[in-house]
C-alpha cells in the first residue's frame, strides 16, 4: 500500500470516527428522546438543527468521498478491515471527551484490533 493510499484510508477512518463523536456530542446536548407520532416534528427539528449533528453528518459526507478515492487504490479486502482503527480512536476519544470507561476487557479488545489491523495492512 502506498503512502497516499494509506493516507486516504486513514483520513476516511478518522472522518468516520469524528462523525460518530460529533453525533454523540449532539445527542448529549439534546438528551434522551423517543420518536413518536406526537413528537416527530419537534424532535426531528432538534436533531436537524443541532450543530454537532450537522457537523457529524458533514464528516460522513466527506468521508464517503475520501473512502471512494481510497477504494479506487486499495482492495476492499484490505481497506474495510482498516476501519477497525476507528474503534480504537473512538474508545480513547470517548474516554477523554465524554468520560466513558476504558476497562481491561476493552483494552484487551483494542490490543486484538491493533494486531488484526497490523496483519491486514502487512498483507497489502
Cα-atom radius of gyration: 17 Å
Please provide the ordered H/E string of secondary-structure elements: HHHHHH
Largest sheet data: none
Query: How many separate structural domains?
Result: 1
Structure in words:
By secondary structure, the protein is mainly alpha-helical. The protein has one domain. 81% of the residues lie in helices and 0% in strands.
Compact description:
The chain has 124 residues and is mainly alpha-helical.
Keywords summarizing the entry:
single chain, 124 residues, mainly alpha, 6 helices, globular
List the helices and strands and how they pair.
Layout: H1 3-30, H2 40-49, H3 51-71, H4 76-82, H5 85-98, H6 104-123
Helix pairs in contact: 1-3, 1-5, 4-6, 5-6
